[in-house]
Design brief:
The chain has 420 residues and is α/β, with parallel strands linked by helices. The protein has 2 domains: 273 residues, Spore Coat Polysaccharide Biosynthesis Protein SpsA, Chain A; 119 residues, no CATH class. Helices cover 50% and strands 12% of the residues.
Length: 420
């Protein structure tokens, strides 16, 4: 282990704790408003479902100035009887530590992985610090499959509004499934369970001075687990209540970060994904139930305007690498009326694969290339909204599955051109 990444007081604390069965990490940065609830839910979950296990909570903080770490220190569930627990037979420990290295969520996770390796944790989980919907049951659902089910990686499965998670629904889920052959529905969900063995494997990877340390840690964890044949599953957690955004709002930074990380992983694991011919579902654990979801507002006019402006301003870039028929489709679409504005699945899949190939072959500046995807993504999202306006959640999910099938069907388009 690199001595520069864990300071001496934290080393001393981990030595005093010794080994632990379970570790739960909470990365944070200025989350004073919500982190107290998260800490209570985690402690309650550990007391209720793992009372005979020695457990450790790690808050890996990025330099909060709003009192986040102080809240973690003082927050506790004092009366376990309120959650029908008479006593916890094994102790519960808490460590609050600033993480070292490049500012970002990945560096926060690295600190959690290091402490997990030091205390030889058997099962671990990480949960977001701004969750409003976390319950003690989340801890059981993320940890138990590792402790008792033989899984090394547990992805979250949430019920989400049909217009929430559009980057996941239109790109990351269907692409990841088609590439690596495992249908993990929320590969960038943010809340994960994993084994101590997998934590050690993550820690051994030479990525901590790259963009993985800044962003992209979620898709990196998911893809690394699948591509290296660790047993994976997903657990149903219900709703993830967070500050949802209008899918037509400015998501360009997030889109760039997630897509960039996914494309980088394709380079790392090109041999793995080129040998995959189809996808299969992964085991899904937990009782699935319907939950009330917060509404999401959508401004279709603005989305279509942004798409049309993108065509005018960026079309010259796309012409460099897009098949002529594909480029022609988009230029004609700018004149469409709202009622007839549609980007079919086949067109969208060829678009994503064309961007992947352009990035792989370094046809132009990578950042400019990937950021130019934004208006096309917004146009596709507008098309999706119009097609599903009156659809229920089941019908919307069927449509997303059809898109996944199209990514699989068109995968040869990508493979044949990869080494040209």
């Amino acid at each position: 282990m690199d001595d520069n990444t864990m300071n001496n007081p934290i080393k001393q604390q981990t030595m005093e704790i010794g080994e632990a069965d379970i570790l739960v990490g909470i990365p944070s940065y200025n989350n004073a408003r919500t982190i107290g609830h998260v800490v209570k839910a985690v402690q309650a979950g550990l007391a209720k479902y793992f009372r005979d296990k020695k457990a450790l909570l790690i808050n890996s903080d990025g330099g909060s100035t709003d009192g986040t770490t102080e809240i973690v220190h003082k927050t506790t569930v004092d009366d376990l009887a309120t959650i029908f627990v008479t006593q916890k037979t094994e102790p519960f420990f808490k460590i609050v530590t600033p993480y070292q290295g490049i500012p970002g969520k990945g560096s926060a996770f690295r600190a959690i992985f290091e402490i997990a390796a030091t205390v030889k944790a058997k099962a671990c989980a990480v949960v977001d610090s701004d969750l409003r919907s976390i319950t003690p049951e989340w801890v059981e659902l993320l940890i138990k499959p590792v402790l008792e089910g033989g899984f090394d990686y547990v992805a979250p499965l949430y019920q989400r509004h049909k217009y929430d998670g559009t980057i996941t629904n239109s790109i990351i889920y269907p692409l990841t499934s088609a590439l690596y052959g495992k249908r993990i529905r929320q590969p960038i969900g943010g809340d994960f369970g994993f084994s101590g063995r997998l934590a050690g494997f993550y820690l051994s990877k030479d990525v901590w001075e790259t963009d993985v340390a800044r962003y992209g840690i979620d898709i990196w964890m998911t893809t690394t687990a699948i591509a290296n044949n660790f047993p994976v599953c997903q657990s149903y957690l219900g709703a993830k209540i967070h500050d949802a955004k209008d899918p037509g709002a400015d998501l360009s930074a997030m889109l760039y970060q997630v897509v960039s990380a996914a494309f980088d992983l394709m380079e790392t694991y090109s041999a793995a994904w080129q040998s995959v011919q189809s996808s299969e579902p992964v085991p899904t654990l937990g009782f699935q139930y319907d939950v009330g979801l917060e509404p999401i507002s959508v401004n279709l006019e603005r989305m279509i305007d942004r798409f049309s402006l993108g065509i005018k301003e960026l079309g010259i870039f796309w012409k460099e690498f897009m098949p002529k028929e594909l480029y022609g489709f988009f230029t004609k679409l700018t004149g469409s009326r709202k009622k007839t504005f549609r980007i079919p699945d086949e067109i969208w899949v060829e678009t994503i694969y064309s961007f992947i190939l352009a990035a792989h072959k370094r046809i132009m500046n990578r950042e400019h290339l990937l950021k130019s995807l934004t208006p096309l993504y917004i146009g596709r999202t507008a098309s999706f909204v119009m097609e599903t306006w009156d659809s229920d959640s089941r019908s919307v999910e069927d449509k997303i599955e059809n898109l996944r099938l199209m990514f699989e069907k068109k995968k040869d388009f990508l493979i044949k051109r990869w080494d040209e």
